[in-house]
């Protein structure tokens, strides 16, 4: 019965317009746009990975409020490698990705800098009462399927619905690095969702579910989910900043070294004091800046 409810809930999410999900990683083409980065009057075309969409929207809103005009066009999100490819092909002016550039991606035409960190939050649907903290062993038991009922962890007598991410996504890599280990087998009934937005919507729709996603998104949108402590460390920006909370996702900005003036002005704003304040007000933690960027 519970499994049928989960299927119906996921079907409803698809019907309202979410992209289809898949357990098989897919490579998306670079974002579609018309080349024109050399035109200083052109709108700034900015694209992001699916897990950094909210970060980019935060910057867009803050920057346009200071400039008094709508200058930034948000492109369809994609995987980080496709955003990088889009910048190289002059289809994207400013890209936001959830990792550093790979050596093979940096052909000296690109500029890159880490700008912020975002905690990876482990949370449950509001129906999961009595569970506020999970240990490493608890997480391993849940994500492997060896514990299948919340009652075994002090919660309600209800089956655990695991909302998981593909192995090549940052969220799953961080879970494995800090808690699950590389060899833990995935729960056979886990529901694998390709995009972070899909997981967030699914968690709010499916009772007794658990998953991992952006803490900043949960804070900014005041999501009605249970934010779990891990090994008695609460998921807060303060704990992330001190290093007590382990799962931190890097957020970086990539742009062309020959960027148009309008594009460079947006990049300069991102690393300015007002830009950093906007980032931290949205629940992100600004990364330490280089002396060169601090002077701008």
Give the arrangement of secondary structure elements.
Elements: H1 2-15, E1 44-48, H2 53-67, E2 72-74, H3 80-88, E3 94-97, E4 110-125, E5 133-134, H4 136-144, E6 161-164, H5 170-180, E7 191-192, H6 196-205, E8 209-214, H7 215-220, E9 225-227, E10 229-230, H8 237-242, E11 248-256, H9 261-270, H10 273-281, E12 285-286, H11 291-294
Parallel strand pairs: 1-2, 1-3, 5-10, 6-7, 6-8
Antiparallel strand pairs: 3-11, 4-8, 4-9, 4-11, 4-12
Helix pairs in contact: 2-10
| Helicity level | 25-40%
- Through-space gap between termini: 59 Å
- How many extended strands? 12
CATH class of the largest domain: Alpha Beta
Structural class: alpha/beta
SS element count, helices: 11
Pick out the low-confidence regions: 1-41, 290-296
Could you report the average pLDDT, rounded to the nearest whole number? 82
The ordered string of helix (H) and strand (E) elements is HEHEHEEEHEHEHEHEEHEHHEH
Number of domains: 2
Sheet with most strands: 10 strands, mixed
CATH architecture of the largest domain: 3-Layer(aba) Sandwich
- The shape is elongated
CATH superfamily of the largest domain: Periplasmic binding protein-like II
Radius of gyration: 20 Å
CATH fold assignment of the largest domain? D-Maltodextrin-Binding Protein, domain 2
């Amino acid at each position: 019965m519970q499994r049928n409810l989960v299927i119906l809930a996921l079907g409803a999410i698809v019907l309202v317009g979410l992209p289809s999900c898949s357990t098989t990683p897919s490579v998306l083409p670079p974002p579609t746009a018309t080349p024109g980065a050399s035109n200083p009057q052109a709108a700034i075309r900015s694209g992001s990975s699916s897990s950094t969409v909210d970060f980019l929207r935060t910057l867009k809103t803050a920057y346009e409020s200071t400039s008094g005009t709508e200058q930034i066009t948000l492109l369809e999100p994609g995987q980080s490698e496709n955003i990088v490819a889009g910048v190289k092909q002059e289809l994207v002016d400013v890209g936001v990705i959830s990792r550093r550039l790979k050596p093979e991606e940096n052909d000296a035409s690109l500029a890159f800098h880490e700008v912020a960190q975002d905690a990876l939050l482990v949370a449950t649907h509001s129906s999961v009462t009595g569970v506020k903290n999970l240990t490493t062993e608890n997480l391993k038991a849940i994500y492997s399927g060896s514990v299948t009922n919340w009652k075994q962890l002090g919660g309600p007598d209800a089956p655990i619905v695991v909302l998981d991410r593909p192995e090549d996504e940052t969220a799953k890599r961080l879970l494995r690095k800090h808690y699950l280990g590389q060899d833990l087998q995935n729960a056979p009934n886990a529901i694998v969702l390709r995009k972070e937005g899909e997981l967030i919507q699914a968690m709010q729709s499916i009772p007794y579910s658990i998953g991992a996603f952006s803490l900043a998104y949960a804070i900014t949108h005041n999501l009605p989910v249970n934010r779990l402590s891990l090994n008695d460390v609460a998921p807060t920006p303060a704990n992330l900043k001190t290093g007590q909370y382990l799962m931190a996702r890097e957020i970086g900005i990539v742009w062309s070294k020959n960027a148009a003036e309008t594009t460079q002005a947006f990049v300069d704003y991102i690393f300015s004091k007002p830009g950093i304040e906007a980032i931290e007000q949205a629940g992100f933690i600004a990364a330490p800046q280089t002396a060169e960027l601090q002077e701008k």
